[in-house]
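[09:14] KT: can someone run the structure on this one? pasting the chain below
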Amino acid sequence: MLNIGSYKLKSRLILAPLSGCSDLPFRAMCRAHGCKFAFYEMLDAHGLTYGHKRTLSMLDSDKADSPIGAQILGHDPERVLEAVNIILANSKPKIIDLNCGCPALKVLRKKCGAYLLKEPKQAGKIIKKLASSLSIPITVKVRAGWGKEHKNEGLLLAKIAQDNGAKGVFFHGRSCSQGYSGKTTYEPIRQAKNELEIPVIGSGDVLSPELAKDMIDKTDCDGILVARGAFGAPWIFEQIEKYLKDGTPPSPASYEMIIDAAKEHLTIYKNWKKTTSEKYYVGHLRKVAIWYSKGLPYSKRAREDISCSKGFDEIVGVLDKLKSDYDIKWLKRH
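[09:31] RB: done, structure tokens below
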């Protein structure tokens, strides 16, 4: 379906390396609903080489969490290689990706992520160091450009990366200055596909099966990176696969399915963190519950209650009440 260097992926759909989101429980939910390839959360080269426990914990995995890729964030080629060797000592990723697309200010201040759009030759040095030192495929994640009126810096960086050994590019249609606002633009992705010899995986606003097909049809990209579209909807992978195969519009997930999935996700997370006090991760539980409840009828008050909840049981109680209240209102209407 999609070849990145010597590695053959079983699907054109890939779960993005979402910082603070695509942890093991999140990946487990997505894999249960058709995700065939996922990335760890974005990993900081400095955090890994300095031995930060939190950064190392991002490599938590299990037998079902495979195949997987690792995305690295860094500016210095030697440090990035050192960090990748730490990843390889603790994991078995099939692909190593260099992040040249993250627009977060704390990342830009370290001259990492999308900052490298301003230093494409530096990105090329990092890619060359990794490609010449490692046997697994190296890819690069870019954005279309730096500013609002950009000059296709993403394509330039991708070409330099290709010349230095990159085997694929993840191409986001927004500029760095856009962040995640506005709509992604297809033209830069289409242009990259036309001008590069390596596979181009499109990224940005893959929020539904229809939008996924629209991106493929209008850019001819080789694959798709699914990111925020999987928040509270891990079944988006199987929905996209089916829609691309036979054009069948997906049936909307039922209220019961959504609430049950939210509770399953929360339970997996709690079991994963069983040796940690809930007070240290209740914020993440709230975030996950809000993902699933967002957009559900009558859920505004529930999200307010979730935001004030103090632990797992309380959050699950809010979700159960939301489901019960919906059932009562549905019966009254019918």
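[09:33] KT: thanks! The radius of gyration is 20 Å.
[09:34] RB: yep, looked fine to me
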